[in-house]
Amino acid sequence: MREFRPISEALAWLDAVTWDATEVVRRADALGRVLAQPIVAGADVPDMDRAFRNGFAVRAAGTEGASDYNPLPIALIPVVSGQAMPAGADAVLPFEAVDASGRVVAAVAREGVLGRGEQIRRGDGILPAGRRVRPADVALLTAIAVETVRVCRAPKVRLVVRGPKHGPDVLTDLLSALAVQDGAVVSRDGGDLVVVAGGGGEGADDEAPAPLDIHGIAIRPGGSSGLGWRDGRPLLLLPGEPLACLAAYTLLAQRLLRRMGGLGPTQTVAARLTRKIVSGVGVTDFVRVRLDGERAEPLGALETGGLAGAARSDGYVMVPESSEGFPPGSPVAVQLWEA
């Protein structure tokens, strides 16, 4: 009889896997990658006083007293936004502050100018380690003249799908999509992590890859999952049934892959159950739910229609092994599928 280990032991095993692989990429290739080091500004932004709008550069003191009743004829230098301020000028008048004859009719103090270092000072921390680089971040890296950045290397996953019981293409496509969503690269020629789907049950044609440190985890679905090592790389054994595979991947492989790639967990939202969830003490239940605002509707097996039901759900709720479930109206944390 297989001994089913608590999920806490499986998570502790996963958290003990060490990983610290990084690489340097050009800023243009950094989009979507996770920073392994903080970015510190090496220069002021802007690098000098610059016009903040289109208009006329002036010396502010020379415009004092200007009005519709007292237009002042002073030196006006046309400038465009982003242009360096001319010598002696310390303000930019909008075009409407000057009449048709070129005289100033509206007084200004120092305005329309972005001073040196006003946006960023040299030595300022700009982007923290662990941040997933966004398009605006790439533009910021350009502004502070950062050519390359060090990012977490995307982990490579080798997928091994065993057995035709539910169609290997279904499992292969499912796991490939999940791994890519979690920042990994699917590789056929080895990898940093081996994921085996199928062959871990107790059927006549099941044969688990040996040895495993843990084989049998008290989760439902996905109890036939296992954890071990192969050639110095962590190996995760997942069930061959698609829905059980999805649950086990989400609870186990996703946790490891996102940490390896420098990503945080997927988003969690608070909701209340529309009806009860029934569970059993001693097993952690994985329950898919559909969200309607702040309401979470549990999806039972008869309602889900297999993978089609999974596609209709928005996330899942975990019922701990110490609980017999939740009554209607209970507050729950819904872990969303989206990264």
Describe this structure in words.
The structure is a single chain. The chain folds into 4 domains: 7-21 and 154-260, MoaB/Mog-like domain (Molybdenum Cofactor Biosythetic Enzyme, Chain A), CATH 3.40.980.10; 24-42 and 120-152, Alpha-Beta Complex (Molybdopterin biosynthesis moea protein, domain 2), CATH 3.90.105; 46-118, Beta Complex (Molybdopterin biosynthesis moeA protein, domain 3), CATH 2.170.190.11; 268-334, Beta-clip (Beta Barrel), CATH 2.40.340. Helix content is 18%, strand content 28%. It has 6 helices and 23 strands. It has a 6-stranded mixed sheet with strand order 11-10-12-16-15-13, with helices on one face. The protein is elongated and about 95 Å long. The mean pLDDT is 89.
Topology, pairings included?
Blueprint: H1 7-15, E1 22-26, E2 39-40, E3 50-51, E4 55-58, E5 77-79, E6 91-93, E7 113-114, E8 125-127, H2 135-143, E9 148-152, E10 156-161, H3 168-181, E11 185-187, E12 193-197, E13 212-215, E14 219-220, E15 226-230, E16 233-238, H4 242-260, E17 268-273, E18 277-278, E19 284-292, E20 295-298, H5 301-304, H6 307-312, E21 315-319, E22 325-326, E23 331-336
Parallel strand pairs: 10-11, 10-12, 12-16, 14-19, 17-20
Antiparallel strand pairs: 1-9, 2-8, 3-7, 4-5, 4-6, 13-15, 15-16, 17-23, 18-22, 19-20, 19-21, 21-23
Helix pairs in contact: 3-4
